[in-house]
Amino acid sequence: YQVCLQAISICGSTTACETVTVACTAPQAAFSLETEALQVAFSSEAVPAPESWSWNFGDGSVSSEPDPVHTYEMPGTYTVCLQVSSVCGSTQACSAVTVSCAAPEAEFTVEAAQLQLSFTDVSENGPGEWLWDFGDGSTSAEQNPVHTYSEPGEYEVCLQASSICGSSTTCQMVSVNCMARQALCSTESDELTLFFTDLSANNPQSWTWNFGDGN
Q: What is the pLDDT of residues 151-185, one digit of tens each?
C-alpha cells in the first residue's frame, strides 16, 4: 500500500509518501478426533484461528462447523479432509479415519404356556434384524415372537441377531409340554335329577360323563 502524509500549517504544506507491505500467515489446517463406534467427534486445531472451516468426511457428507460430530452409516476406513481459510489464505489437511462397531451378541429367554412359547430377545450391541428358527420348520423375523407348537416335544430354537456391524447366532433346547385336562365337577340335586357343572381346568374341548348307573 502507498501511504501518504500531508503536513499543513499557515506557512504551507508538504507531502511525503512511502510504500508499505503488510502480510499475514494463512491458518495451518490440523484436526484431532475421538471415535465411539460409528460416531466420530472432530476438533479443528488450525492456527492461527481461521475464519471458515470446510470438512469432507469421505462418505459424501460435509460440514462447515469448527468441531462437528459425524455418524457413519457403515464401518470402514474413510479419508477425512479439513480445509481452513482466512483473508490470509487457506490450507488443507487429510487423514484416514477408521470406524468400527461390535457385532450383536445373540441371546434370548423363553416363557412357556402349554404348547405356546413366548420368546424375548435380550441380545447385546443393538441388533436391528432378527431371524428365529423354532426347530419345527417355522421361522420368524420378529424381535419378540410368540410361537405355538403343534405337539409336545424337545425343539432346538435358534436366534440370529444382525446389524450393520455383523451377526451372531445362539441356540437353546426348549421343552414343549401340555398338561392333562383336570376334570372337576359340582352337582345340584332336585330329588332324582342332578345338575352337573364342569369345573375343569386347562380348557378341555370335549367331555365324557359316566353317571355310575350305566349312563
A: 999 999 999 999 999 999 999 999 998 865 455 55
CA angle 25, 29, 34 (to 5 degrees): 150
Tell me which residue has cell 445362539: 170
| Inter-residue contact 44 to 82 (CB < 8 Å) | yes
Beta carbons of 143 and 103 less than 8 angstroms apart: no
Neighbour tally for 59: CB within 10 Å: 15
Question: Where in the chain does DSSP place strands (E)?
Answer: 2-9, 12-19, 31-36, 39-44, 52-56, 62-63, 69-71, 76-86, 89-99, 108-113, 116-121, 129-133, 139-140, 146-148, 153-163, 166-176, 185-190, 193-198
**CA angle, residues 181, 186, 187, in degrees to nearest 5:** 140
The pLDDT tens digits of the residues spanning 85-141 come to 999 999 999 999 999 999 999 999 999 988 999 999 999 999 999 999 999 999 999
pTM of the model: 0.60
CA distances 17 to 10, 29, 212, Å, are 21, 38, 134
